[in-house]
Amino acid sequence: MKIEHVALWTKQLELLKDFYIKYFNATPNQKYHNSEKSFSSYFLSFSSGCRLELMQMDSVPESKDDLYDQFTGFIHIAISLGSEQAVDQLTQRLVADGYEILSGPRTTGDGYYESCFFDPDGNRIELTV
């Protein structure tokens, strides 16, 4: 068994798609649009086989949760980059491009080397080895 995809609602479909293409070499499918529901989506594929579905629909409200608080339920996506050097390099690139780094790069108490940041929508992304 494997996780086939994870889905995210967004109000910035094109911006979020371009972000994951730029920083994680995602490959998008052709945009799907349902005009009756005012719904659009992309599936982004990654070299590992995992996919991320980005969805936008005007009727979906924005989250009222404070991005800096932790809460129960889904909280982050961890993306393995293969080496500490790759984590360091991408973290530095994100900082240079103006993204807020929440933690790291660092080795956690359970042995993970990681950094954590917000994507353009405020989703927590963890970069790991």
Automatic annotation (TrEMBL):
InterPro entries: Fosfomycin_Res_Enzymes, Glyas_Bleomycin-R_OHBP_Dase, Glyas_Fos-R_dOase_dom, VOC_core. Gene3D superfamilies: 2,3-Dihydroxybiphenyl 1,2-Dioxygenase, domain 1. It comes from the Bacteria. Residues 2-129 form the VOC domain. SUPFAM superfamilies: Glyoxalase/Bleomycin resistance protein/Dihydroxybiphenyl dioxygenase (SSF54593). PANTHER family: GLYOXALASE_BLEOMYCIN RESISTANCE PROTEIN_DIOXYGENASE (PTHR36113:SF1), LYASE, PUTATIVE-RELATED-RELATED (PTHR36113). This is Glyoxalase. It comes from Vibrio coralliilyticus.
